[in-house]
């Protein structure tokens, strides 16, 4: 027996906003992917390295699921989150939502999904489940992963049960749009200023504009950081450009969010932020290209150029967020 809901599985770029879009459109709230990302104050930066890591990681967004929590709080959505250590209870939580007519979001490790094109463990991946039968689960993932896809129930169970960095305990979630939904337009300024404040005042040097500056210094040493530069450096660049970021380490998404906001608000500060993030997006793509070239050629000069660009990016994004932080003033 097959149980399927009719959902809008349009092509999108980032996993968490893809799932959020499916859940919200099913209830009649249709927001663009950049608007979902921006209202969730999703932009950030982290330079992440550690003894148990094979190679450093550059991240461009807030932690998995923080975006969902931020968006729910800002739009007063009812966010119902279920977690459990029991695989049986976890599946019952999902099927109960489907039988009630609601698609459900899942956080899991993408490594175990059979359709996934890149076999890399990532425990912060998010999909929307809209149906199942005796053998398969029917999901909506990013456009890059195929959009409306399916995977076996056994592989889904493995993905949900995985443990490791960024994983959750069989997390599933649903959203309910309230009758008195706040105007998304009215929430733009609080979302932007909250994101700017976090970026400008990071608690540690690995985050925000300070993290980008740190990356500018450390990326120059990456050829010495790896025993396989032809593998590790292009992989790092690929994660910046192609791994569900929307390109340019999420800066394309935030640029497009700010562009959409300029059609809603007349603000010089907003226009300045948009202009600077358009510049930053181009430079992030250039940085990724330099890192790839360094890995393929072994030319340290490429990493020196990448470091210089990252130093510029730290300044540009700092100036952009300074302007955006003034929106309420």
Automatic annotation (TrEMBL):
InterPro entries, A to Z: BtrH_N, DUF4872
Residue stretches making up the Butirosin biosynthesis protein H N-terminal domain: 14-142
Pfam families, A to Z: BtrH_N, DUF4872
Domain of life of the native organism: Bacteria
Record domain DUF4872: where: 155-324
Protein name as annotated: Butirosin biosynthesis protein H-like
UniProt organism field: Actinomadura viridis
